[in-house]
Every structure is written in structure tokens, then in C-alpha cells.
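Exercise 3.2. Students should predict the tertiary structure of the chain below and write it as C-alpha cells, then compare their answer with the key that follows.

Predict this chain's 3D structure.
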Amino acid sequence: MLWNRAASLVLLIAAVGCSPLAAGSTSAQGAATTAPAAELAVHPISGLTVVPLTVTTASGPHAFKVEVAATAGEQERGLMFRTAMGADEGMIFPMDPPRPAAFWMKNTVIPLDIIFIGANHKVLNIAANAVPYDLSPLPSDGDAAGVLELNGGRAAQIGLKPGDTVSW
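Answer key:
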């Protein structure tokens, strides 16, 4: 019994240490957090890691809790099929290396604001109120180091504009 617990602990530590969000990582994917693994939250629907994210606009900082879609599979699924999301929730798609990005709303039930973020953590552009199920590509205005999805209209509510800062 004690051996089983020790083996489980070793496997848990190895899994956390090998994940792209390992504590102390400084890559764009791992920049989401530097908190110890024990403090990480997990979203009850997606199972993705949830991290704090701050958007700083002319009106000041706005705090969000966002799911991190770090792998290709997680990024492909995104917020598809989700029927609701809290006002201060969202999803971040880290991109390392930064690259041109385009998103669409295939199988996405709720309207979203899609915020493209440059390598300097400044907002490049915003695809506001993206229409559910629309297959039209919504591109970044340059190389994106991350893409943030919030509820449709939320960017306007907080006064988010290109050039504002996003930290995660």
C-alpha cells in the first residue's frame, strides 16, 4: 500500500514536470503561470488548467480566470459546444513561436470576442462578437503570441482596444 502511494506520487510529479505549463516555465505556452502545480485550478467542463489573466485598458486592470488551451488538440476544440461562460472567464491559446493566426466559430454556440495578442503582450486586433457557427476566418493583424476568447461584447464592456496589455 505504501509502495503504491509512493509510485503514484512519483508519477504525478513526473507528469506535472513534463507538462507545457510546468512551474517556472518562461515560454509563451508556459508563461501562463509560475505557481506551484498544487495551486493550479482545473476547469470542471474542459479539464484544462485555469490561470489568472489581467487585461489592462485605459480604465485600469480587469481580472479574468481563463482556461489554457496549450496543445494542438486543445486549441482545435477551443470553446466548441460550450453553452455558457462566466463574465470574467475565457480561454487563452498560447502560441510559441508567435505566428499569423485565424480563428472561426465552427461548432461554437456562444458569441465570442477573439482578441489577438502580439509577442509584446499588446492587443493586435479584436474580432468582436464573432457569430456562432460562422466558418469565416477571423485573422490576426500580425504574428500572435496568444489569442484570448471572451464572451461576445465583453471587450467593449471593459474598453479593450488594440495596444492594451494582456498578461498571463
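Discussion points: The radius of gyration is 17 Å. Residues 119 and 159 are 21 Å apart (CA to CA).
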